[in-house]
Amino acid sequence: MKKTIKSAAVSLLALSVLAACGNGKNENAASPSSSQPASSAAATDKEPAKSVTLTHLTWRVPDVGKGYDLFKQKYESEHPNVKIEVNNIASDQYFNMLQTKLLSGDPPDIITTAMGATELIAQVENGFVADLTNEAFVQNILPGALDGAKIDGKVYGIPYDLVSLVVLYNKKIFADNGLSVPTNYEEFLQVCEALKAKNITPISYGIKDSYLTLFLPFQIAPTSVYAKNQKFDAGLLTGETQFNSDGWKRALGIPFELKEKGYFTENALGVGDQQSVEMFARGEAAMTINGTFGVSVARAANPDLELGMFPFPGNEPGEENWMALNVGQIMALSSSSKNLEEGKKYLAAWADKAYAQAWTDEAKSISTIEGVTNDFDPVQNDMTEYLAKTKTWQFANAGWPPGVSDAFMKTFQEVYAGKGTVDDILVAMDKAVEQAKSLQK
């Protein structure tokens, strides 16, 4: 689920509702009956459907329980001529391996990909994925999620699983100390100070895994940057915008302010993703900076945890706060697949409500498909409430040129270790933009 952040990280929600498409049946066709022996005979003489094997490449198998197994079993039982081969590659190797397969002319039929300049956008530009715009099943996808699979107005995949960056918090600790969920940054500082005064670590924070450096700034930037200029990313390549700006100084400055005030776990550079969530779940801190994908880790560490979540309030008092939201994966069809029509049928199943509900129940992820309920964990009700009233923006690096995310993560860790300032991070990011521009010439 974390891939959209881990490898370019893997945009977003405040979803409106589309009516589900029809079931494709021809209501005017005559029903078979005993008065139609010729039709029965014709069906008997019909050649059996051609056997097909569809290959589906992904990194998601470890994240979703038996999700793929259940989907495969259901699909193969309903399509006996089709065999599904799901091949998993570790998330830290996935996109390099996928790129190799695409360039070598040996792509899988179904490509699991992600938003961003180095993923879906590049794959579309190079002609690796098929245009699905006119397929009926895309109408089953919530429009706010479908935008994540659109390039220049055309649809190139099925976005699946919505993920949001959030603050996970211990409701009992908050209640025991008379604290309410903060609605702006000023209130958030007050909550942290009240906890610290009672010798409670406010925030379990870890950035040992470099992608974790993105989790907090990406929650602030929707408000400090993109609410003010939704064309910020497009302006990077034209020179109209740059990271060395007030909005990004705020988004990057807040994490270091919280560090200086002593609100974070000590030795954050030595604390990894799972460890930081588990520390929080055990009551070693009142909050942790993570995402909706961290819920299952927290539950496993402490099933009795009174868990809540809220979007990080990076806004000033009186200012509207925006959330960071993304699709966890996009399933696309290889344009060079030898099984294009069967591949489209397979993707149609992913967009089917019954299939999607079974997946959501098993994977415990927020669905992008119309009509699917997300009631697998009570804490998701918190997110549902926020999504109904809060504007959203994609994970910031979905619109960045190649190389910028790497510069961000590397320099952030260096500055956290005391080697430089926030300005150094911004300078490194702008240099990465210039390098990307030079490669395009």
Q: What does this protein structure show overall?
A:
The protein has 441 residues and is an alpha/beta fold. The chain has two domains: 3-16 and 50-163 and 327-380, D-Maltodextrin-Binding Protein, domain 2 (3-Layer(aba) Sandwich), CATH 3.40.190.10; 164-325 and 395-440, D-Maltodextrin-Binding Protein, domain 2, CATH 3.40.190. It is 40% helix and 13% strand. The chain has helices at residues 3-6, 37-45, 67-78, 94-104, 120-125, 143-146, 171-176, 185-197, 217-226, 232-238, 246-260, 273-281, 295-301, 340-350, 353-363, 380-389, 404-416, 422-440, and strands at residues 52-58, 82-88, 110-113, 150-151, 154-155, 158-170, 203-204, 287-291, 307-310, 323-333, 392-393. Strand 4 (150-151) and strand 5 form a beta hairpin. The two termini are 35 Å apart.
Which key features would you list for this structure?
disordered N terminus; 40% helix; Carbohydrate ABC transporter substrate-binding protein (CUT1 family); alpha/beta; 2 domains; D-Maltodextrin-Binding Protein, domain 2; 441 residues
